[in-house]
Amino acid sequence: MAIPSRHRAVVNGLRIFWVLAILWYELGIFSASVRWCNWPDPYLHLPAHILLVADPQIVDRHSYSSRGPLLSYLTRVLVDLNLRKNWRILSYFLGDMMDNGRYAMPEEEYEDYYQRFSDIFRVTDGIPVYFIAGNHDTGLGISSQFSDEARSRYSAHFGTPNKVISIANHSLHKYCKELHLMFLKEQHTDPVILFSHIPLNRPDGKGCGPLREKGSIRPGVGLGYQNMLEKKSSQRLLESFKPVAVFSGDDHDYCEHTHQLLSPRGQPQMVREVTVKTISMVMNVQRPGFQLLSLAPSDLRTDSKHTYFDTPCLLPDQLRIYLNTYIPFLALSLLVVFGMNVQNETRSSHLKNRPISSQDFPMIDRHPDIEDPSIGSSSSPGWFILEGQRRRPKVDRLPVSEWFKRPKEALLCFCSGRTRTVLRRQSWLWASLLDVWSIAIFPLCTFALVTWWLMSN
Predict the structure, then answer these.
(1) Is 53 exposed, middle or buried (0-12, 13-18, 19+ CB in 10 A)?
(2) Which residues lie below 8 Å from residue 227, measured CB to CB, with a gap of 6+?
(3) Could you tell me the membrane topology recorded for this protein (predicted)?
(4) DSSP tally for the chain: helices H, then strands E
């Protein structure tokens, strides 16, 4: 019949649509975003590649405790899954690896916390990884909530907070006073790139460029945070290290600013600072991101060329996918399913209530000797008249409770296309709910498989 065939086509079409949507929006769009962002390599030969990631801030049970245990747990799961989708390869973390790494907690809880970070950001053997301590990792200021062991725990798991690294004849510095003094005693000819978790000082309200989502970096200090370094500290860093570039984190949004380094002789040196976007979906930015940095070895440099090149990479807006994609798709799918079942119910009622006509039966050639039953009774055998209303074959209904007691039988019923036969006399609402379940099971299983794949790889 036309109605069951059209019904099965719509249901199967929605199943396919939702499976493809889950595969694309949970996996494909993230892989595509990474592939579309290319390394900024202006040279024919391969330079050194460094991927900069800022403020992943792995959340824990303390991060959103006001939401309650269930919502807090779901938030941690969704954030972890989002970070797994965005993660590929890494060389440098710009701080705040953990949201609450500075807080006092049992050693076992911190180990589990760190293990979650390690499971998400797995690194291929042979790829070096470096970390900068952030205020969420070791604390900033004094508070009874901060652990006295925060710095020692950080050093034991992530390494020393400050160091000098040489890559492609570039010196990569993470600042501390001791390194500053050592650097001044030595002769350095390689270009210097400075990494700092907290951005350097700049005029209040200074713009950050077109890639920033909103506002600017403003001065501010409070318990456990500092928006930018002090003016004297920033100037001392620039004058001592004379970096060709500065990369920072902490602010969560993207920002570009050019510092002016005064020189006693000649033109002042312009030092560009890039504040890298957070890679986390819950840090008040619509699109998380990271930064690609390419360093040119000394044999590829000329006086007219830069020694480094960088580019920002933006990731999909996960919250926008949930709110502006899945919810409209869900509303449209429900509208199609309910509308289809209401239409089928209307057609079925129309066929049931229309009067009986001769067209409902096949034409039979009458014998000329047999009289018309409407004229009188006939003594010829084989003819009879049923008085009363038209009878229909009785169809046993399947009670609603049986669908929950026998889910396997119900699922087989859907897969074999016998749903409309069993539910011929059920209401359109119940039939719609069963259709919704038969459709939803496919994208739900797809989402579970994608989640399992992300967790296991």
Answers:
(1) buried
(2) 198, 199, 217, 218, 219, 220, 221, 250, 251
(3) Multi-pass membrane protein
(4) 14, 13
| Residue-level pLDDT at 302 | 57
With 70 as the cut, is the pLDDT of residue 247 above it? yes
Give residue 386's pLDDT: 47
**Other Cβ atoms closer than 10 A to 368:** 6
Angle, vertex CA 66, rays to CA 61 and CA 68, nearest 5: 70
Q: How far apart are the first and last CA of the chain?
A: 47
Residue 76's nearest CA partner among 280, 273, 214 is 280
Give the separation between CA 270 and CA 256, rounded to whole angstroms. Answer: 13
In contact, 107 and 42? CB cutoff 8 Å: no
Element (H, E) at 98: none
How are beta strands 245-248 and 255-261 bridged, if at all?
unpaired
> H helices within 159-265, ranges in order?
177-185, 231-241
| Backbone Cα Rg of the chain | 35
CA pair distance 51, 225, nearest whole angstrom:
25
Enter the DSSP assignment of 54.
B
Structure tokens at 108: 């076992």
Digit-coded pLDDT (tens) for 138-166: 888 788 888 888 888 988 988 877 666 66
Q: Torsion over CA of 301, 302, 308 and 309, rounded to 10 degrees?
A: -110
Query: 290 near 50, Cβ under 8 Å?
Result: no
* pTM reported for the whole predicted model: 0.74
pLDDT for 377 beyond 50 = no
**Which of these, 63, 68, 37, 65, lies nearest to 51 by C-alpha position?**
37
Over residues 210-239, the mean pLDDT reads: 90
Name the pairing type of β-strands 192-196 and 245-248: parallel
DSSP calls for 409-443: HHHHHHHTT-HHHHTTTS-HHHHHHHHHHHHHHHH
Contact 199/209 with Cβ under 8 angstroms?
Answer: no
CB atoms within 10 A of CB 217: 24
* Per-residue CA distances from 129 to 19, 35, 105 (Å): 37, 22, 26
Burial of residue 39 (number of CB atoms within 10 Å: 0-12, 13-18, 19+) = middle
Report whether 278 contacts 224 (CB < 8 A): no
The first and second tokens of residue 174, run together, are 């993470």
Average pLDDT score, the chain: 78
d(CA 452, CA 456): 6
Q: How far apart are the C-alpha atoms of 434 and 79, rounded to whole Å? A: 32
- Res. 287: pLDDT tops 60: yes
Q: Could you tell me if 306 and 57 are in contact, meaning their C-beta atoms sit under 8 angstroms apart?
A: no
pLDDT of residue 245: 93
